[in-house]
Write a structure and sequence with these properties.
mainly beta
Length: 191
């Protein structure tokens, strides 16, 4: 006996094709949700991002240095949220550990993906070793990277004795790091 109010349901039995269609639709919804994340630059509140993440450890990171077989050495590091996403980045001053002399530094920004076992990766080079500078101090304050750098005024200056002292800052703005550099007057000891 049929209920006169409810018509007979044509699809009252599930078949594998129904489950397959449902799974495909759910996968499409999940993929679309992954693409439609909130804009981090708009300032997502830190509480909404979950527990505080640890800054990436530069140990074991592949830096874009050509040390010709010598090991790399991290000589300074600083942490802070540079892009306003609520997660700290690490800034590392790295040079080749040549054993003698003073190889130039590179300054790199490291981040870690949100997956649990993700390794730190270099996302920006603030100071390329080709600029032939040595880092004497490195800090992150209020989202700004600050470094004290020693360099050379000309190729004739001996590599043992840098004669230029600069204070350099990098700030994240408009999707990139902007650099500002000031020459610091020489001190009585020559630097």
């Amino acid at each position: 006996m049929q209920n006169p109010v409810l018509p007979e349901l044509a699809h009252s039995r599930t078949r594998p094709v129904h489950w397959l269609a449902t799974a495909a639709a759910m996968a499409a919804v999940v993929a679309t949700a992954g693409l439609l994340q909130p804009d981090r630059a708009a300032g997502t509140p830190k509480a909404a991002l979950g527990p505080a993440a640890a800054a990436p450890d530069p140990a074991g990171t592949d830096f874009p240095l050509d040390c010709h077989g010598a090991p790399e050495r991290v000589t300074a590091r600083a942490q802070g949220d540079l892009d306003g996403d609520g997660r700290p980045e690490t800034v590392a001053a790295v040079r080749c550990d040549a054993g003698s002399g003073t190889p130039p530094h590179g300054i790199y920004v490291l981040t870690r993906d949100t997956t649990p076992a993700a390794r730190p990766r270099v996302v920006a080079t603030l100071l390329a070793p080709a600029r032939r500078r040595s880092v004497t101090a490195l800090a992150v304050t209020a989202g700004t990277v600050r470094a004290e750098l020693l360099g050379y005024s000309s190729p004739e200056v001996p590599r043992c004795c840098p004669d230029v002292h600069r204070r350099t800052e990098w700030r994240w703005a408009g999707g990139k790091f902007l650099e500002e550099e000031r020459t610091v007057p020489a001190t009585p000891d020559g630097v």
